[in-house]
Design a protein that fits this description.
The chain has 384 residues and is an all-alpha fold. The chain is 70% helix and 0% strand.
């Protein structure tokens, strides 16, 4: 590993939101109080020190930024006001930009203007696409979205978009895997990866490590937003044929309605809590809001609200209003999917559990390969 000092690193990180890392005098208080920090993977002090020393290569290969969930304890108790929790957040943005081979993530995190323009351009393209590509036979007597945009046509577009997004995200995750594992990436037998697959699934679905933080409310809000949006994604992408149906009202206990209601409540609760917290700056994780934090919350809440409005206008059987709101809804939802999932906040949901999983694989491989070596050494000692 290179130990070259790069004095430009801290300046570069300022474009990702870094502010107070220079205040840190390495007392170690932040690492001591962090419930997730371990002797093998200590943070945040180690990460802040790497920034101060310009250790770009070591920072790139460090898994610790993904082991932090930003409960804010370290920032609250820092005697110098160095805000180590926000510094860890900055490093996650920076690492996301390095994993992304397209360069979009870097532009998203370093240019608010680029982010707004990119979202606006995708929104306009989606709006134009819906206006140009439809059946041309709207039902003006009843609100029937399928009369203009049949579910099977939307399904095809969803599958194409899902394939592209999956390729972009998974290719970036693969780069993360190569960086974190280093030379061990393909030396460790596949059975070790398979044996720890359960950990990957658990941390992906529950963010279990987050629940170990002292501020469990942050974990709960995070879980609500994640599960709520994941539920919506399944409904509108995977099960669109059952979700987008005209004049067919499911019973209140039908799975489609139950999942839809849960997703609506979960997203509105989680995003509202986070938005109010950021407006009031009520606790450490909400005191320094990056433009991408605001954009993520705003797009997610607008997607949910426009979906609610569409639901009511369909029940009221207002065709023109329903069609108009549907176009607006898609102009908000699609840019968030296309841009946030592979390049910004949603990518963190992939990197975190993957890194936890890879560390488990490393740990198990080290334990099982060390045991025979130790036994062999004991035998050789006895013989000698």
């Amino acid at each position: 590993m290179s130990n070259r000092v790069d004095p430009t690193l801290i300046t570069e990180l300022e474009h990702f939101g870094l502010k107070d890392a220079h205040k840190c005098y390495n007392c170690g208080n932040c690492t001591a109080i962090c419930p997730l920090s371990t002797p093998e993977n200590p943070f945040p002090r180690k990460m802040v020190r790497l920034i101060q020393l310009g250790q770009r290569d070591k920072l790139l290969e460090a898994p610790e930024p993904w082991l932090c969930y930003y409960c804010g304890d370290c920032s609250t108790r820092c005697p110098r006001g160095a805000d180590p929790g926000e510094t860890m957040m900055v490093m996650r943005r920076y690492l996301t930009s390095l994993y992304d081979w397209t360069g979009f993530a870097r532009k998203f995190y370093t240019s608010e203007r680029f982010e707004i323009m990119a979202i606006a351009i995708v929104a306009v393209l989606v709006g134009l696409g819906l206006l140009l590509f439809n059946t041309g036979k709207p039902n003006w007597d009843h609100a029937a979205i399928n009369s203009l945009w049949p579910a099977e046509h939307i399904e095809i577009a969803d599958l194409i978009m899902g394939g592209i997004l999956s390729f972009l995200l998974l290719s970036n995750v693969f780069r993360c895997f190569r960086i974190i594992m280093g030379k061990m990436a393909f030396k460790i037998p596949l059975r070790y990866y398979a044996s720890e697959a359960k950990e990957l699934l658990i941390h992906t679905l529950t963010q279990k490590r987050f629940s170990q933080c002292t501020d469990r409310m942050q974990w709960f809000v995070h879980l609500m937003i994640m599960t709520g949006y994941s539920s919506v994604f399944l409904l509108v992408v995977v099960f669109i044929r059952w979700f987008q149906r005209d004049h067919i009202e499911y019973a209140i206990w039908h799975p489609v309605r139950l999942v839809g209601y849960y997703a609506t409540f979960a997203i509105l609760y989680g995003t509202t809590y986070a938005i109010i917290g950021r407006l009031k700056k009520s606790k450490a994780p909400y005191k320094n809001s990056h433009p991408t934090d605001w954009m993520f919350l705003i797009l997610l809440q607008l997607t949910t609200l426009t979906g609610i409005f569409i639901h009511f206008t369909r029940l009221l059987d207002w065709p023109a209003t329903t069609y108009f709101l549907y176009v607006i809804h898609m102009m908000v939802a699609v840019p968030m999917l296309v841009l946030e999932v592979p390049f910004a906040k949603w990518a963190h949901l992939a990197y975190r559990p993957v890194v936890v999983f890879l560390l488990k694989v490393k740990e198990r491989y080290a334990q099982e390969t060390a045991a025979p070596a130790t036994a062999e050494a004991v035998v050789e000692g006895a013989i000698s």
